[in-house]
C-alpha cells in the first residue's frame, strides 16, 4: 500500500506532494497530513449478460417482423431456463435503412433492426445454457458477460474504511515517534475505484457442441470484484 506522510510543526512549513488529480491542502501549524490506499474484495453476486437482437430484410416491415420473431425466441429461451422474460431489459431499439455506396448515387438495399438486451442473473449455473441456446438459434450478436456486486456502495464503504484505518495508523505512528499525540480529524477527501471485468462470449455465428465439449466457463470461478479507495486526511497534533 502507498502511504505518503507529511509532518508539519509549528515553526516549519512543508509542501505536500501528492498524486495528480488528488486534492491539495494548505500547510497548517501543528497538523499531520497523510494519504493511504485501501482495498476490499468480494465474490460477485450478479452476472450481467448483454446481447443484441438483429435482423436485416428487404423492407422495414419484414425486418421488424423478423426481429419480433427473434425476440420471441429469446423469451422462450428465458422461460425454458426458469426466467421471466420481463426480467430482461431493452436498452435501445433502432430501425435503420441500409444503403449500397458502391455507386455514385447511393441505393437503398435493405432495412436493419437492432435491439440491445440486458439480463441480470443471480444463478450463475444458468449462464452457460442461455449462451448455448442463443448461439444455436442465431438470434443474437455481440454477447458479453460482466460479473459485479449488486450493492457496490457497501463495498466502496469497506474500501474507504480500510484506507482511513491505514491513514490513521500511519499518522499515529508518526506523531508518536516525534513525541506528539494525534488529535482529531480536521479534513478528509476520498476517491474510490472499482474494476469492471467484461468477458466476451462467442457471437451468434459460432456454434458450440454441448455433447462433445464443456461450456467455456465450466468449473471456473468468477473473478472477484475489487474496489480500491484513496483517503487523504489531515489530523491535528497535540
Question: Can you describe what's shown?
Answer:
The chain has 238 residues and is of the alpha+beta class. It has 2 domains: 3-43 and 151-194 and 227-237, 2-Layer Sandwich (Translation Initiation Factor IF3), CATH 3.30.110.170; 46-148, 2-Layer Sandwich (Alpha-Beta Plaits). 24% of the residues lie in helices and 40% in strands. It is built from 3 helices and 9 strands, in the order βββαββαβαβββ. It has helices at 60-80, 127-137, 152-177; strands at 3-8, 31-42, 46-57, 89-100, 107-121, 140-148, 182-194, 198-200, 225-237. It has a 5-stranded antiparallel beta sheet. Strands 1-2-9-7 form a 4-stranded antiparallel beta sheet, with helices on one face. A hairpin with a 6-residue loop joins strand 4 (89-100) and strand 5. Helix 1 (60-80) runs antiparallel to helix 2. The longest helix is centred in the last third of the chain and has 26 residues, at 152-177. It is elongated. The chain starts with a strand and ends with a strand. Residues 1-20 and 202-212 have low confidence and may be disordered.
Amino acid at each position: 500500500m502507498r502511504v505518503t506522510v507529511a509532518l508539519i510543526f509549528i515553526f516549519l512549513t512543508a509542501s505536500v506532494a501528492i498524486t495528480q488529480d488528488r486534492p491539495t491542502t494548505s500547510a497548517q501549524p501543528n497538523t499531520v497530513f497523510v494519504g493511504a490506499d485501501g482495498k476490499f474484495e468480494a465474490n460477485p453476486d450478479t452476472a450481467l449478460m448483454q446481447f443484441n437482437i438483429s435482423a436485416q430484410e428487404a423492407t422495414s416491415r419484414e425486418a421488424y417482423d423478423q426481429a419480433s420473431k427473434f425476440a420471441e425466441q429469446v423469451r422462450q429461451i428465458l422461460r425454458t431456463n426458469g426466467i421471466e422474460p420481463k426480467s430482461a431489459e431493452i436498452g435501445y431499439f433502432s430501425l435503420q435503412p441500409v444503403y449500397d455506396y458502391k455507386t455514385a448515387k447511393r441505393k437503398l438495399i435493405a432495412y436493419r433492426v437492432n435491439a440491445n438486451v440486458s439480463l441480470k442473473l443471480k444463478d450463475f449455473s444458468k449462464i452457460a445454457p442461455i449462451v448455448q441456446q442463443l448461439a444455436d438459434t442465431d438470434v443474437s450478436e455481440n454477447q458479453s458477460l460482466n460479473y459485479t456486486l449488486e450493492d457496490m456502495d457497501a463495498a466502496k464503504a469497506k474500501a474507504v474504511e480500510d484506507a482511513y484505518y491505514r491513514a490513521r495508523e500511519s499518522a499515529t505512528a508518526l506523531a508518536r515517534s516525534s513525541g506528539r499525540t494525534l488529535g482529531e480529524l480536521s479534513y478528509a477527501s476520498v476517491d474510490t475505484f472499482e474494476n469492471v471485468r467484461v468477458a466476451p462470449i462467442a457471437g451468434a455465428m459460432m456454434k458450440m457442441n454441448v455433447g462433445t465439449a464443456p461450456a467455456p466457463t465450466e468449473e471456473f470461478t468468477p473473478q472477484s470484484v475489487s474496489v480500491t479507495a484513496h483517503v487523504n486526511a489531515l489530523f491535528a497534533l497535540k
